[in-house]
Amino acid sequence: MKVKLFGKIPFKTVKVNVVPDLRVIPGGQTIGVKVKSAGILVVGHHQVRANNGTKESPGEKAGLRLGDLIIRIDGHNINEVRKVADLVEQAGKEQRPLAITYKRNGTIGETKLYPIRDAEERNWKLGLYIRDSAAGVGTLTFYAPEQGVYGALGHVITDMDTQTPIEVGEGQILQSSVTSINKSQTGEPGEKRAHFVKEGKILGNIERNTPFGIFGKMNENPIHSYSDKTIPVTFAEEVKEGPAQILTVVNGQKVERFNIEIAHVTKQPAPATKGMVIKITDKRLLDKTGGIVQGMSGSPIIQNGKLVGAVTHVFVNDPSSGYGCFIEWMLQDAGILMRERERSTTHRTAA
Prior knowledge:
This protein has 2 domains: 17-36 and 133-333, Thrombin, subunit H, CATH 2.40.10; 47-126, Pdz3 Domain (Roll), CATH 2.30.42.10. It is 8% helix and 48% strand. The protein is built from 4 helices and 26 strands. The protein has helices at 58-61, 84-93, 283-289, 327-333, and strands spanning 11-17, 23-26, 30-45, 48-49, 55-56, 69-73, 76-77, 98-104, 107-113, 116-117, 124-125, 128-144, 149-153, 168-182, 191-196, 202-205, 208-210, 213-217, 231-232, 242-249, 255-265, 276-280, 300-303, 306-315, 318-326, 344-350. Strands 2, 3, 6, 7, 8, 9, 12, 13, 14, 15, 16, 17, 18 and 19 form a 14-stranded antiparallel sheet that branches.
């Protein structure tokens, strides 16, 4: 008997997300942040008056712009402002230019800068305002005890003058205590006022400053946590519109839980900021802060017992609302999840 063949059985490839068995301890603690840049950041120009009465900025004339990161001067790696003066003085006395190597938008450039002797102060100057560090407060988002890493802030740290991201050379996070709240009002976001405590007690280092926050090593869960128990995390596609909670501090070091509403969820198949719109619904928090305030960024967002994201920005015209980012992208930048979106297993099934 002949058997008729109907051809090959077609197969299709189906990709199925595999959720890692990942659990982290949610944060909420207010933290102090100290960052030292990977060079000297140009934050402004100023005019220098020479002996002949002329005024100009040698740095501006050399083509240096706001946001440029000076990484070498005369072949010396440089990341501290205090080391610049001696190099400038030496070049000025020798009547020669400084060889400047700088980074701009990720690209390395070089220029020659001729210092000018200030007629009034009688020292040699670059005509630049420069900075090598920054400090502030924010909120811890999570601590992953198995990996020994943390994530915080939910957004990049930028220089306050140039609004450019700070390229981190080194940094630390420390314990911080909220002393008062400047409430948010329409058109005027408020802020947490806080001070560093136990500065000798370093909670962790800062290794990366990305669009989704700061990340680094941490050896133990900080004190004053809402809970020392781990909770599961969830991927972006599982976040739903509806009730949720945030963990944050409004007084001292006590982490409290407050109700919010996830008003909108954006479909994000790849990392992007502004993943969700959130609205504060908790009357206690609204009475205390007026809504979202500066320093609250990084506050973990929890839905159905899972960590889903972090608070990132406030709406200036409606401080009760703001943006949040998905925790998935923070976990990628922390090095816990693979960066590829296809965290999947390929199965073959008959069509």
